[in-house]
Amino acid sequence: MATITYLTEKGEKSRWWDFPVIAMSGLLTVVAVDVSVDSFVAHEPVSSFAASACVVLLMLLPAWLVVTHRLRQASARKLAKAFELCRNDSISYADLQKRTGIKDIPEAVRKLIAKGYLTNIAVDSERQSVRLVKLWNAASPGQQAILDTGNAEFDEKLSEIRKMNDEIKNL
Fold first, then answer.
1. CA torsion, points 70, 76, 78, 84, in degrees to nearest 10?
2. 161: in domain
């Protein structure tokens, strides 16, 4: 049985250190806010208050990064589940929007591909759809699905992906 996946490892696995990062960031932010309020109440110069505000923002940055990672991961999982249910080699933007609830499908898919959460898919703006590149993990290295889409540019990119996939297997 062939397995098809559209999620990368980044999109699948949870990171064990997400919660400790958020907890530490929250604790340090509370301390920084306390120092900032104390300097404001003590009528210290505006520069010390501005420095304290910058420290607060720096303390919130790790938590922000963890939260955005989790949100991207959730979106990637929604899209991957919709792709798994698709029996064709493409799925329209409207159909994906109905299945996932994501408003701007092409933009979301492009961002998730660029950030490394999704793989084996391509956005086809001409046909208003997302094309699925189904690469099967075959028993023998020579067996791979032949997918002729009729779109020369897309077929060329697909052959490049297959060549890279073969090179990786040969390492």
1. -150
2. no
The pair of three-digit structure tokens given for residue 107, joined into one six-digit string? 């933009």
Backbone angles phi, psi at 8, to 5 degrees: -85, 175
Token reading at 66: 């963890």
CA 44/CA 133 separation, integer angstroms:
61
91 strand-pairing partners:
130
Phi-psi category of residue 116: left, alpha or beta, with phi > 0 → left and psi -120 to 50 → alpha: left
Q: Distance between CA 19 and CA 160 in Å, rounded? A: 39
List, for residues 79-98, the tens digit of each pLDDT value: 998 988 888 888 999 999 99
CB 127, CB 88: distance < 8 Å: no
Host domain of residue 87: 9-134
Q: State the pLDDT confidence band at 107, using cuts at 50, 70 and 90.
A: very high
Strands, DSSP E only, in the chain? 90-92, 121-124, 129-132
User: Backbone phi, then psi, for 165, in 5-degree steps?
Assistant: -60, -45
In the chain, the number of structural domains is 1
pLDDT digits (tens, 9 = 90+) for 26-81: 888 888 888 777 777 777 777 777 777 788 888 888 999 999 999 999 999 999 98
Distance, in Å, from the CA atom of 78 to the CA atom of 150, rounded to the nearest integer, reads: 28
